[in-house]
Every structure is written in structure tokens, then in C-alpha cells.
Amino acid sequence: MGQRSKLQFCRKIGVNFERAISSSNAYDDRLRELVEAGKDIESAYWELVVKDIQDACKLLEPIYNEKDGEDGNVSVMVSPKLANDTKGTIEAAKKLHKMVGSPSVYIKIPATDEFISSMKEVICLGISVYATLIFCLPKYEAVIDAYLDGLEACSMTDLYKVSSAAAFYISRVDATLDKKLDQIGTTEALDLKGKGAVAQAVLAYQLYQKKFSGPRWER
């Protein structure tokens, strides 16, 4: 199937464009030009985003080439407005991938049920996916299965460059569990504070090792 997997806890570069645009004046002139040229706000926003992503891909291209795609990737997320639109997500991923025009770009897709349904199809098209906002093991397994299903359905002869990354937000497990442990208040409960996230990370890594080994992965 594939020679490797990057569907794990790996470092990717993403940009919080909303914060960057709203907290500085670096984008003001270009945004004003786009609006004055007749672009609506959303279209102007995406032009700014794509340009920044293209610049980041170019900047990191030497690293991407040197590491044979294992590092130097850049991610850009589909619109959150598509959270319940599987077909729309697929089309948005295709459009963003084409607009950026770089093999190092990852299309970031949150791991909601509807978004996960789109991951298989996006991977099938040979587009690398960065699955984000994963909070539990069943979601992580669903993301892995979508990745594997997409590779199996892909018509490309060389799957080496079709990869994925997964952002598992384990720290938020402790943020939730610790409050409940405080409510219980026993010595045993309080001794477990700060341990849930690490335990889940261990289980997630075991799941990763299981899924990316054996006959299905190796064929």
C-alpha cells in the first residue's frame, strides 16, 4: 500500500490567519486592494491565505526536499462553514490543493463525523490530509481507517507522497478529567490528576502501531 505513514503526532506548520489578520496591519493594504477590486470579504480572505501558504511552502521547500517530505510541510484548513457538508469539504480540499500548487501542502480537516467521511475521498484523490481536533481514541481510529481506505481506493501507482498527519489534543483530556476528579475529591481520585492525557497518548500510540503494521499496511 504505502511505504510509510505520517499519521501520527508530527510537527506541521499551520497559521492562525484570523489572529494574524486581525492583530496586525500587515495585511491591511492588500486586503484593501482586493476589496476595492470588487472581491467580497471571503474571496479576499482566501486570496490572502493562499498567498501566505504558497510563500510558506516556498520558504520550506529546501527542508521538504532534503527530508523527502518528512518535514517542511505546510497546512491550510478548509472553511469551518463546511463542518456538516461532506461533499463541499471534498470540493474545497480539491480547490485549495490546486490553488496552492505545492506537494508539501496538507489540507487540514477537523475530525467531525462529516469531515471524516470526506477524508477517504480526499486521500483517494492523492491529496495529503492533516486531521485535526481529535480528542478521543475512537475518532483517532476512524481517521486512521479513512486514511487507509483512501489509499486503497487511490488509483495512483506511487502512494509514497500521499500521507497524513493527525493532531490529537490530549492535554484537553486532563482539563476535563481533572475537574471531575476534583469533584470526587478522594485521595485516590486526586492522585489521578494529570495522568489521563498521558495514558490516552500511550493507548493512541499503541493503536497507531497496530494499524500501521501487518498484512493490510505492508501489501
Automatic annotation (TrEMBL):
Presence of the UniProt keyword tRNA processing in the record: no
Coiled-coil portions: none
One cellular component term from this protein's GO annotations in UniProt: cytoplasm
A molecular function (GO) term: transaldolase activity
Keywords of this entry: Schiff base
Keyword Phosphoprotein among record annotations: no
InterPro entries according to UniProt: Aldolase_TIM (IPR013785), TAL/FSA (IPR001585), Transaldolase_2 (IPR004732)
Gene3D superfamilies: Aldolase class I
Biological-process GO terms, alphabetical: carbohydrate metabolic process; pentose-phosphate shunt
Superkingdom, taxonomy of origin: Eukaryota
Biological function: Transaldolase is important for the balance of metabolites in the pentose-phosphate pathway.
UniProt record similarity statement: Belongs to the transaldolase family. Type 2 subfamily.
Name of this protein: Transaldolase
Origin species: Glycine max
